[in-house]
């Protein structure tokens, strides 16, 4: 195959060409804003309105982190790290020790595709709970090596509306930082068709939401929200939000790459995976190619999902140091 998205890496698949695409402002201490944000409900959403990895031949695959015993879901997790100053918040975003880590690959994942449009709530819950186990196995090494604590969220399946510690949400998939759990609406396939049509789309969405959980546990999510709020400018606040969302896309692509051997993901599956990122672009959802919103245009979301598919280097997902044009 041709060059990989993130450059050649021994033992990993090369999914097509490298991505092509045509620093946050500095401010003063956060004390006042952070005091107002203690207990803040950060609702990180997939973008709806609110918006073969082999080290050997054949079956001789040496899976990484295979002896790690994945913990059960933690419904009473420890508090997420919070910056005490603006400088600390900026360091969480642009110089986080998490960026110095790599994800293990290939990683075993016993999950298999599910038709989310026809699955029962019980089947959805079982599928996503199993996927969470895979997500923890991939992300536990880089999170802990960076000095942070990883938490396994529960996944709650709901219908048209749900009220959580982050407030009330309609049809969506989201991570709530107030309880550090993940939620998935069984109605989502009706509103984002690609979720029902592509066999990997729902897993990409869930991996994106877990990307927000990673941001929560490494101080990124709250720092982004705090600096956005501190700016007092809607356009800057939206820019920080888009950096968070596109970073979660990058993390989701990186996860799909790590488990691609175990899941049997092929080059032919990549178009569908990238179509998922496109489907939840702000312009795709609104029909407005010039919209300035909170999650990023389809081209930006595809770019960062694509970037994640091509690398095990967490630092390649540092959207907070990327040019603003790459998270438009």
UniProtKB/TrEMBL annotation:
Region annotated Disordered, chain positions: 1-27
Superkingdom field: Bacteria
TM stretches of this protein: 33-54
Localisation: Membrane
InterPro entries assigned: Uncharacterised_pept_Zn_put
Keywords: Membrane, Transmembrane, Transmembrane helix
Name of this chain's protein: Neutral zinc metallopeptidase
């Amino acid at each position: 195959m041709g060059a990989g998205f993130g450059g050649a890496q021994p033992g990993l698949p090369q999914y097509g060409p490298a991505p092509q695409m045509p620093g946050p402002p500095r401010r003063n201490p956060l004390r006042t804003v952070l005091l107002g944000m203690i207990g803040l409900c950060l609702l990180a959403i997939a973008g709806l309105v609110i918006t073969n990895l082999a080290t050997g031949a054949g079956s001789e695959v040496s899976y990484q982190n295979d002896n790690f015993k994945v913990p059960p879901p933690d419904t009473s997790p420890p508090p997420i790290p919070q910056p005490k100053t603006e400088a600390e918040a900026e360091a969480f975003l642009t110089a986080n020790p998490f960026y110095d880590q790599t994800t293990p690959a290939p990683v075993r994942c016993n999950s298999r595709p599910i038709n989310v449009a026809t699955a029962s709530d019980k089947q959805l819950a079982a599928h996503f709970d199993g996927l969470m186990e895979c997500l923890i196995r991939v992300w536990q090494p880089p999170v802990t090596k960076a000095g942070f604590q990883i938490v396994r969220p529960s996944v709650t399946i709901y219908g048209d509306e749900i009220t959580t510690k982050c407030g009330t949400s309609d049809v969506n998939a989201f991570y709530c930082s107030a309880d550090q759990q993940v939620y998935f609406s069984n109605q989502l396939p009706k509103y984002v068709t690609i979720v029902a049509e592509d066999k990997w789309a729902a897993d990409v969405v869930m991996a994106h939401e877990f990307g927000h959980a990673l941001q929560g546990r490494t101080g990124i999510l709250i720092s982004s929200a705090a600096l956005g709020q501190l700016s007092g400018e809607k356009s800057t606040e939206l820019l920080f939000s888009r950096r968070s969302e596109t970073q979660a896309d990058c993390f989701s692509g990186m996860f799909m790459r790590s488990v691609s051997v175990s899941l049997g993901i092929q080059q032919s599956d990549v178009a569908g995976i990238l179509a998922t990122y496109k489907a939840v672009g702000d312009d795709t959802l609104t029909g407005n190619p010039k919209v300035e919103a909170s999650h990023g245009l389809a081209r930006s979301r595809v770019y960062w999902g694509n970037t994640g598919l091509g690398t095990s280097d967490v630092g390649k997902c540092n959207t907070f140091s990327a040019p603003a044009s790459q998270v438009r």
